[in-house]
Amino acid sequence: MPILNEFSFPSCDCKNTIYVRQWLPDGQPIGVVQLCHGIAEHISRYDDFAQYLASNGFVVAGNDHLGHGLSVSKPEDLGYFGEHGGWELVVGDMRKLYERLREQYYSLPIFILGHSMGSFLTRTYIIRYHDGPDGAIISGTGQQNALTVNGGLALANLLIRRHGPAYKSQKFNDFAFAGYNSHYKPQHTAFDWLSRNEENVDRYIADPLSGYCASVGVFRDMLTGVKYISNAKNLARMNKDLPVYFISGDEDPVGEYGKGVLRAYNNFLSAGLTDVTLKLYHDDRHEILNELDRETVWSDVLSWLQTKVEAKKEKAPVGEEIPV
Question: Hey, which CATH number is domain 3-144+229-315, 3.40.50.1820, 3.90.740.10, 3.10.20.90, 3.40.1190.10?
Answer without folding.
Answer: 3.40.50.1820
